[in-house]
Amino acid sequence: MYAEVILSKAADRIDKIYHYAIPGPIIDKIKIGQAVAIPFGKRSETGYVVGFVEKADVERTKEIDSIACEKPLFNENQVKLANWLAEYYSAFRLSALRLVMPPGKKDVKSLKSKPRGEKAEPKAKAEGASSGPDLTADQAGAVEKITRSIQETDGGRFLLFGVTGSGKTEVYMKSVEQALSQGKSSIVMVPEIALTPQLVQRFKARFGDGIALVHSDLTGAKRRREWERIAEGEARIILGARSAIFAPAVNLGLIVIDEEYERSYKQDNAPRYHVRETAEYLAALTGATIVLGSATPSVETYYQAELGSLVKLTLPNRIDARPLPPVEVVDMRRERSGLLSQKLRDELFKTLKRGEQAILFINRRGYFTYVQCRDCGFPLHCPHCSISLTYHSSEKKLLCNRCGYSAPPPTACPQCNSRLLGYFGTGTQRIENEVADVFPAARILRYDRDSVSKRGSHEAFFSIFAEGKADVLIGTQMVAKGLDVARVTLVGVVSADTALNLPDFRSAEYTFQLLTQVAGRAGRHNLPGKVIVQSHLPDHYSIQAAARQDYELFFSQEIVHRQELGYPPFSRLISLLFSGVESSLVIKAAEEFGRRLMSVKREGVLGPAPAVIAKLHGEWRYRILLKGELDELRRLVRSVPIDFDQAKVRLTIDVDPLNLL
Ligand code: ADP
Ligand code: ZN
Ligand code: ZN
């Protein structure tokens, strides 16, 4: 028998499993997940045991020197998970393996190797079934179906569909309780721990010490301790952000993903995994049940529910029957100057006069310029890709960041011939200036990286607003999450179009989700709220559906566009991003790679084209987008040899990309 070993240090671009013979004295002790000392070349190195094979792939194998750490750093399921990650997301095995290892365990030499003790009994049978309120009939129906699936270990997948306040969190907690009573662990994923303090508090209040919190804000030691409590079965409820999906849960029964459409569930560096996909693999491996909860599911997820491969559980009503705040759409084509419409100014005036608070939102991603007709609202689109063209002031031209199409900006609107073409791209600073002009007495708080770090933290920053020490909060949708301030009665979306004009096929979806999310910030308590949405495209279906808070209305139209253009869920995507300091080398590498791809597959190879963010950190960026069936695309990418200098041009492969900027 031979051990399969991965080196603990990444050697340059080598991603390999080595076979080592196992000397007699340790043959009974060696286990998957252990760190071992191995001879490698002329040195001694540390490696991780990831498996065993009967036959080695080379004639002469070397022997393992010793076991460096008795206590396994990961278990067999976690190895499978890491292998799957590496394969699915075209990542290195080592970087995938690091995700499933105890956090901060990169230097195994400093490990104290305490043998794994008897498994602790799971703490407490929770607080029995009597905890929490009596469920409504809809909630009870949902919990019953989820419970049965956990019981049967059938890998059931559910979409819990309901607006904020419809009782989703209560369903999560009851389902977790049911899993506990069957002796099973649950993983509950939230987009960001710091931004969801209320959910965390409720879980803590309900389950106490049975919870392990896993997120990146914890110090290394604290995270490691949580990891151990999970591995020992001491904590059976794992609450966390992205990386919590890799926790070594004992007897996993349930995975909950709250607000599954949130982009923070996708990791932005290698391995570029998505929590939802990872959860699905885990569920297939363990038979665990998946619950995705949201009022605004991703189009991909809702489509699966429509097809029936996800079971839709609907919570149609808010628990307290409090109505959602009315949303009014202001047609900005009728306004001539400034960022704030007369309507928004009037409402702001009334709100401030009553001593209440307002939030003004802009889109986080509004940092590029697009061109839109001020008269008819027509946005300038690529004739080939149907995504917005971006304006590059240095060259005075419009560019498609998908296919590379470029053209000088027209002097008149192609639709109505108006000469009033607007160049848009709004910053928080501009809004602050305008609000300060109109309301000199208002205390304004502007959210951006600088203003937050000046106050020390998000919490410190938001507490200023929560305590009523500011009247108007201006920021991106980052400020929307979890913000629950009783005196906020007005929410203004300064420009809904910045999201709509993103050069991204998901722009309508983002717009709908953004508007729905920010609208939920107004009038959360006794004071009635109001939402004003400003747009040059007030009739766009995503804005109309958001104004009515009608997800199904949005989905029914969006899905038609996706199908017409063959975008997900009707295809899968892989993004190939070429980047480097010397633009000529980057272009050459991308074009050559593109040619080779196209010689194999004519359809669905888009680009290369300059990325929306054409230059980042001094590096030029070009993208090829592949569209088709995932396995075929993956084979296609593998079939093309990399024959450019990888020290000068980097190729970043992103499977199921969300960030196409
Ligand atoms: P969501 O997660 O969909 O926003 P929550 O689960 O937070 O909804 O429920 C909204 C509010 O209603 C919370 O304050 C919660 O405690 C309460 N609640 C939930 N379910 C019930 C119920 N069955 N009976 C009474 N109150 C409930
Ligand atoms: Zn026009
Ligand atoms: Zn194009």
UniProtKB/TrEMBL annotation:
This entry's comment on the bound cofactor is: Binds 2 zinc ions per subunit.
Task: Answer yes or no on keyword Transport.
Answer: no
Gene3D superfamilies documented for this protein: P-loop containing nucleotide triphosphate hydrolases, PriA, 3(prime) DNA-binding domain
Q: Where is the Helicase ATP-binding domain?
A: 149-315
Would you say which domain of life the source belongs to? Bacteria
Under Gene Ontology molecular function, one entry of this record is: zinc ion binding
Reactions catalysed according to its record: ATP + H2O = ADP + phosphate + H(+); Couples ATP hydrolysis with the unwinding of duplex DNA by translocating in the 3'-5' direction
Give EC number(s), comma-separated.
5.6.2.4
Q: Where does Zn(2+) 1 bind?
A: C373, C376, C413, C416
Q: Where does Zn(2+) 2 bind?
A: C382, C385, C400, C403
Q: Where is this region: Disordered?
A: 105-138
Q: Where is the composition biased (Basic and acidic residues)?
A: 105-126
Question: Which InterPro entries does UniProt cross-reference here?
Answer: DEAD/DEAH_box_helicase_dom, Helicase_ATP-bd, Helicase_C-like, P-loop_NTPase, PriA, PriA_3primeBD, PriA_3primeBD_sf, PriA_C
**Keyword Transcription annotated:** no
Q: What does this protein do?
A: Initiates the restart of stalled replication forks, which reloads the replicative helicase on sites other than the origin of replication. Recognizes and binds to abandoned replication forks and remodels them to uncover a helicase loading site. Promotes assembly of the primosome at these replication forks.
Annotated NCBIfam families: priA
Q: What name does the UniProt record give this protein?
A: Replication restart protein PriA
Its source organism is candidate division WOR-1 bacterium RIFOXYC12_FULL_54_18
What are the top taxonomic ranks of the organism? Bacteria, Bacillati, Saganbacteria
